[in-house]
Structures are given as C-alpha cells and as structure tokens.
Write a structure and sequence with these properties.
heterodimer, A: alpha/beta, eight-stranded mixed β-sheet, B: alpha/beta, Rossmann fold, 2 domains, five-stranded mixed β-sheet
C-alpha cells in the first residue's frame, strides 16, 4: 500500500491565507517569484514585521500584494518605487521591497527606477519581466522582443526592448542581477543578496506569461516558455566574449553589479548629524 | 526643541517661507518636492530647515514621485507635505486620489500660477479651484483651505496639518503667486501656544485589523501605520474594512466611498471657516477668497462710504462648501458678486448656493493681475446705475 502523499507548503506562513488562491493564471511565473521571495525571507530569517512590501499595478504587482503578509502598500501604476522612497526614509530600519512588473517599473515608472538607482536608496526591487502588459490583455511592453506579436503590435513589434538590468546597473545601483523563473535556486540566492545589500538592489526575473505572450509567440504552454528560458539563457561571464549578433535573442543571466556604495538614507542621517553639530556649535538658541 | 527661525515672535517674510516655517512648527518632518515657480521657495526653505529639526527634505524626479513619497512617508508615520504649482498639481492628481482612497493624511500646497499649461509661471491666478476640489477622478471629498495674507498662509498651514491628521485625509492649501511671493509681518507662535493634532493610532492589535473600518463611529478609522508589526494592507482598489481588495461588490464600494465623503461632509461645521464684513445690512454681497478678498474688502469699504450697502463674505475654506450660508445671504441681498482671478469657478458654486434667491454676477480677472478695489467698485456702481 502506498501512503497518500501529504505535502505541507512551509512558506504559507508568509502569505495572507484568506486572499488565496491567487488571481494569477495557471502557468504564470508569478507564483515562482512569490515562492522564491518567501524562501529568501525565510532563509535570511527576516521577521516579516520588519518588511514593507510596495507594489504598483499589473499582474506582477499582485505577486506580493495582497498575498505576502507584511505591511503592504499597493500603489498607483508605475509609482511603487517613489512611494517606497518615502516609506524607506520614514522607516530606515525596515527592509523595503518593491515587487512589480516590467511595464509598471520600467515602462510608466521608468523614471523612478532610474533615479532610485542613482540615489542608491536601500530598496530591493524584484522586477518581474514577462515581456508584456498581461492584466490589460497582452499589449506591447518596453521589454517585448523585436518582432514579437502582441495585441497592439498584431503584425510585429518594430521597437527594441529595454535592457533593464544593464540600464539600472549603469544608473548606479549597488546590486543588480537577472535570472529567469527556470533558475529558481540562483534566483533565491540573488534575492537574499539583494535583501542583504545596503543600497539600491534590483533582481530582474524573466518570467513566463503563456496566456498573453507565449500563445501569440509560438509558446503556448508554460513548459515551452521555460524551455525557451533554459535554452536561451547565457551566463554573464560567457556573454562577455560573445558578439552582439551572437547575443541577439539571448537572455543574459547572473550578477551585473555587486558593490559597496554610500547609501541614501545613511547619507541623509549623516547630513542631519553634521548640520545639527554645526548648528549646535555655532548657532544661537533660536528660541 | 530649537527652531532655525524666530518663534513666539514676529518676522517679515514671504508667504512661501511662512508656509515652510508653519509646516515645521506643525510637526512636518518629511517634505518631498520638485522645483516649480512660484512654489520653489517653500522647497528651498524646507531644504534649509529640515535637517536642523531632524527632518528630511528630498528632491524627487517629478511631482508624481513627490506626492508618492509623501504618501509613503505618511504611512511610515510622519507628518508630510509637498508643494507645487499648476503643471505639477496636474501631475499629482492621480496620487491625490490614491491618498483620498487610502485615507492618508498629507498637506499639498498649490501656489497657483496662471494657466492653462505653462501659462504665466510668475503670475498669480485662482484658476485651479475646481481642479483642487474635483481634479482627481471618481467620487471623493477632501479639504481645501485658502489664505489671503502671509499670516493666514502661516496659520492655515498649521490648520491644514491638524485637519489632515484629524480626518485622515489629504488637505490642500490653495494659495497663489501673490500671497506666496509677498512679504508681510508674520507672528509665529511659540510651540507651547500651538494646539497640534496627531492622527489616531490603533489602541490595540484588534483595532489595527480594521484600517478602513468605522470602528469608533466617527467615520475616521485609526491608522495602523507601517513598521509597528500590524502587517497592514493598503490599496487604492476598492477595499473592505480590513483593507482587502473587493473590486466588484457594489455595497462595499458604496460603503467605503460614502464614509470617505461623509467624514468631510458630516464635519462641515468643524472644518468650514469664513469671515464677513458688513453683511448684516447689505444689499450687495461680494464673495471672494485669497488675495482678491483683500481688494474686495477695500471695495466694500469704499462702496459704503458712497452710501451703497455692500458686504463681504471672505471664504477661508473652499471645500467643504457652505451652500446653506450662501442661500441665507442670497435671501437678504439683491445681488451677489463673486470676485475671482479666473473665468468663473467659485461663481458656479455660489450660484448653486444662492438657489435663485439673488442674482449672482461674476467679476472676473485673468492674466496675472489682481482686481484693484477700484475695478470692483466701478463694476458694481455701473450695474446700479
């Protein structure tokens, strides 16, 4: 007699159970990202009470809100990082994490992404890149591959995709990595590193949307999309010796940046101390 | 606590500077802004003063980010403010609605300039009145205060923070380039003289479970701010009392939005503020606000000297609006004049309030110049001839 298999999902303790099941489609990569994030939090033994999760609008914004059980701010479209900036400055001792999609963070909210990286504020951004505006029905995104079919590029996409990880790295972030939902263990390790980084960190997760992207681009099933990730992923070390032509259509994975840099809220507090000291020494009592 | 400016004393300062100082006295410790004429002086003053009072002033990448950061800081527990003018005010509209929907206390200062679009950046206007009240989409309510003097700009900034905290709502301080850039004598009270309001926090874990529930029967839920271990969920989606998204339930939506509107409407008496002069025996009433009300006041005095019984209603709060007060005035006068620096915005609200009981006329002025008292006097005398 074979015993019935009982599986207990350990990470459920980090989720708002009453909000489950998720609104994500079957086969969506969002669940993998949520699982990876929960595992990273668990392995680092971070108390979720010390986390504030901020998200924007779109499918990927729903990965964390409402499902992840922490203080959660589900904001307007594209603005999650700007909201998170206020939260982080107000609560510098908490870990502030933004989880949202490519259209949200790199499309409409691209400006905030660049400037938060430049400021090097201690926020961890998990940017889920599924190449498409999923929730609204599969419209072209700033990340959609050249030539891909979407509902607003029904003939073919004539624009070139933004390289998010590379862009954020050059904007000045402390930590930048890219993985796919196929590379789950590397992804968890990277999220852990990002959370531990003092400064702006970005983990771009290339994720599958079989419903809005895959089925219009010859990858009907989640498995086909994951196979595509696995076959086209090129480690950054290898990519360095490849020509632009060879890299066409490839997904470069790995760590792009990992460095120590002065962090924004620490600089703010240092400034306040300096000014207070100077004022205390030189100024008269203003009262 | 020491302040980097005189308190319990008078000073001769700009309206913008007065707003910055008052905000700090009101307990504001987070400011996020983006440069824009004629509001930049508020930002510059905040940048200078904030580090001296253990506060933060940061420059965001745009006005959308500024109000977003302010909302984030407010949920982190800080009293927070941003200031802008027309173009930036337009950019803030979406997140203003988010602040209303999530019942986030904040103060948004609009130092109005002449629009539309880039318009006349250095010149005053009152063209954003309707936008301040109705600019964000969907059914909503909020509070709009409007000062006529630099002292009022100071006092109303403190009041704006108090009302924001009391009612868990964004409050707009709607001023203009004239008041913002004008220098006048301002008395800044000593902090001991001030009555400051702080948002209601949950008394216990149980109360914290209802960030959007009318658990005290006053329509204003305690605010389970972040970082206290409550694991609050906040969303701009329609949500139930516990904050959970409920986007297709008509009853939940109606209950939420009606409470948000109701907490302002039901407290009109507490919020509304105005001044009158000579209305008791007036045949002609002038309704005005902000910088124009000062010209209107002078006009009333001159008209009275010439034997015309004029009176003034100077509004200090533009929303919520006292339609009943206007109707009462309309019952006792022959004609109401609305003097404002736009093509007629307050005019429509006054007309609705007057309810046909008196003729309502608009004295409009645009282009960046304030009505002179003489212009108002002449217009009224011409009509009377």
């Amino acid at each position: 007699m074979s015993k019935p298999i009982h599986t207990k999902y350990e990470m459920i303790k980090y989720l708002r159970k009453e909000a489950l099941p998720t609104a994500l489609c079957p086969g969506c990569g969002g669940g993998t990202v949520l699982n990876a994030f929960a595992n990273a939090v668990d392995q680092l033994k971070i108390d979720p009470r010390d986390l504030v999760v901020v998200s924007g609008i779109g499918c990927s914004a729903w990965i964390a809100s409402p499902y992840f059980l922490a203080d959660t701010l589900h904001t307007t479209h594209g603005r999650a990082i700007a909201f998170a900036t206020g939260v982080k400055v107000g609560l510098p001792d908490k870990k502030v994490v933004v989880i949202s999609g490519d259209g949200d963070l790199a499309g409409i909210g691209g400006n905030h992404l660049l400037h938060a990286a430049r400021r090097n504020i201690d926020i961890t951004v998990i940017l889920v890149n599924n190449f498409i505006y999923g929730m609204t029905g599969g419209q072209v995104a700033p990340t959609t591959p050249f030539g891909a079919i979407t509902t607003t590029t029904p003939y073919r996409n004539i624009e070139h995709p933004l390289k998010i990880a590379e862009t954020v790295a050059s904007a000045g972030a402390s930590y930048v990595a890219r993985w796919t939902t196929f590379h789950v263990y590397q992804l968890i390790e990277s999220i852990k590193k990002a959370l531990a980084t003092k400064g702006f960190s970005l983990v771009e997760v290339v994720s599958q949307c079989p419903v809005q992207f895959g089925r219009r681009n010859k990858m009907k099933t989640p498995a086909e999309m994951l196979r595509w990730f696995s076959r086209n992923a090129v480690p950054i070390s290898k990519a360095k010796s490849m020509s632009p032509e060879e890299l066409e259509g490839k997904i470069i994975i790995g760590e792009f940046v990992s460095k120590e840099k002065p962090e924004f809220t620490e600089e703010l507090n240092r400034l306040i101390d300096e000014v207070a000291q100077y004022y205390g020494l030189g100024g008269e009592d203003a009262d | 606590m020491r302040y980097p400016f005189p308190v319990g004393d008078a000073d001769f300062i700009q309206g913008d500077e007065a707003i910055a100082r008052a905000a700090i006295l009101a307990g504001c410790r987070f400011y996020a802004g983006y440069p824009i004429t004629p509001a930049s002086e508020i930002f510059e003053a905040m940048s200078l003063y904030m580090p001296l009072v253990d506060g933060v002033s940061i420059q965001m990448e745009d006005e959308i980010g500024s109000i977003a950061a302010v909302i984030g800081a407010s949920w982190a527990g800080a009293k927070a403010m941003t200031a802008t003018s027309g173009p930036g005010f337009s950019l803030m509209m979406e997140n203003l609605g988010y602040a209303i929907m999530t019942e986030t206390p904040l103060v948004l200062v609009n130092v109005q300039r002449s629009g539309p679009s880039t318009g006349q950046p250095t010149l005053a206007a009152q063209g954003d009145l309707m936008q301040a009240i109705w600019g964000t989409h969907g059914d909503h309510s909020l509070i709009v205060l409007t000062p006529a003097t630099v002292q009022e700009a100071f006092d109303m900034t403190i009041r704006a923070f108090n009302l924001a905290e009391k009612y868990r709502t964004p409050v707009i301080l709607l001023t203009d380039a004239e008041v913002g850039h004008m220098r006048e004598r301002v008395y800044a009270p000593h902090p001991d003289e001030l009555e400051l309001v702080y948002r209601k926090l949950p008394a216990n874990e149980e109360e914290a479970k209802y960030p959007f529930g009318d658990i005290h029967g006053d329509l204003v839920p305690p605010m389970p701010i972040f970082g206290k271990g409550y694991r609050t969920y906040v969303t701009g989606l329609t949500h139930d009392e516990r904050g959970r998204p409920k986007t297709v339930d008509a009853e939940i939506h109606e209950r939420l939005v009606k409470r948000i509107v109701g907490k302002i409407e039901n407290n009109k008496k507490d919020i509304i503020d105005y001044e009158t002069y000579g209305l008791e025996d007036a045949d002609i009433a002038i309704v005005s606000f902000g910088i124009v009300a000062r010209s209107a006041m002078r006009a009333v005095k001159e008209l009275r000297k010439e034997g015309i019984n004029a009176g003034l209603l100077k509004l200090n709060v533009l929303w919520p609006f006292d339609f009943e007060l206007i109707e009462k005035i309309a019952e006792n006068v022959e004609r109401i004049y609305v003097a404002e620096m736009n093509l007629g915005q307050l005019y429509h609200m006054v007309k609705e309030g007057a309810n046909g009981k008196a003729k309502v006329e608009l004295i409009s002025r645009i282009g960046g110049e304030v009505h002179t008292p003489g212009e108002i006097v002449e217009r009224i005398k011409r009509d009377l001839r």
